Amino acid sequence: MDTPAELGNFLKTRRARLQPEDVGLVSYGARRRVPGLRREELAQLAGVSVAYYTRLEQGQSHNASDGVLDALARALRLTADERAHLRDLARPTRARRRPAVRPERARPGMLQLLGALGGVPAVTLGRRFEVLAWNRLGHALLAGHLDFDSPGRPLDRPNTQRLLFLDPHTRELYPDRETETRRAVAALRMAAGQYPDDHRLAELIGELAMKSDEFGTLWSRHVVSNCDFGVKSFHHPLVGAMELDFEMTRTPDGSGQGLLMFTARPGSPSEAALRLLAAEHLPEARVLEPERP
């Protein structure tokens, strides 16, 4: 991933979504060759020189101060996630020589927590959105057509991004596909900014861009968001329609691992459907622990 180019593309797309009148500028009805704010207008709003902003957008400036980044974020009306992404792109971590990357493993505490959540669909995801572990109900909800033991095999463990865009069974699982794919790409954009030197993450993005026009179109929009909570709609092959609240809790160790959990609102038809799904897979619930060397 070319971080300077990504920074420039991100800034351009953020400029393009704003009109002069959105930020209090007068356009005097002049015909504009490109949509959104011009570089000169954004530089004026942020209080920086046009030459400096141009260098930043072209990837020629690598030491933007906190003040400059904050000023650009305010001028572009960035969300909190977009501000964090801007900082990640403006100040990428430098790659270091390191030994071959080993497959990620779910932390022991995460596995223990999964086991305790037998009645709640739960999945442990790595920073590349690989399924590192899941409980029986999490597996049944998201990928019952796959081998339950697959997360323990790093070479073919499921990846939620790959499933969403390339797996026909997963495609049928989400009736509101537009919302789901937009969320997925926004979260992947966020991860790409946080881990610019992760070659496996870059390979995943490249694979999806080559194999899915849908992904490529969404990726070009440069939307970013953590998407750590919300509501997901499902059309499950066994129990039908469900609307489930989801929460993603992330570990504080910087590994990027997270625990994704789903719940239904009490008394709702979705709760009844989730109970029916659980009746098919519990109390046999257990947690798959990845193979040990």
Give a brief description.
By secondary structure, the protein is of the alpha+beta class. Helices cover 45% and strands 11% of the residues. The protein folds into two domains: 3-90, 434 Repressor (Amino-terminal Domain); 108-281, Beta-Lactamase (2-Layer Sandwich).
Account of the 3D structure:
The protein has 293 residues and is an alpha+beta fold. It contains 13 helices and 5 strands. It has a 5-stranded antiparallel sheet, with helices on both faces. Helix 11 (199-211) crosses helix 12. The radius of gyration is 22 Å and the shape is elongated. The two termini are 31 Å apart. 34% of the residues are buried.
- Total count of domains: 2
Any idea of the CATH topology of the largest domain?
A: Beta-Lactamase
| Uncertain spans | 95-100, 289-293
User: What is the name of the CATH architecture of the largest domain?
Assistant: 2-Layer Sandwich
Structural class: alpha+beta
User: What spatial form do the alpha-carbon principal axes imply?
Assistant: elongated
Number of helices: 13
Radius of gyration: 22 Å
Report the average pLDDT across residues: 86
- Order of secondary-structure elements: HHHHHHEEHHHHHHEEEH
Beta percentage is: 5-15%
Main sheet record? 5 strands, antiparallel
Q: What is the straight-line distance between the termini? A: 31 Å
Q: How many strand elements?
A: 5
Instruction: State the name of the first-level CATH class of the largest domain.
Output: Alpha Beta
Strand order of the largest sheet: 2-1-5-4-3
State the share of residues found in helices, binned by percent: 40-55%
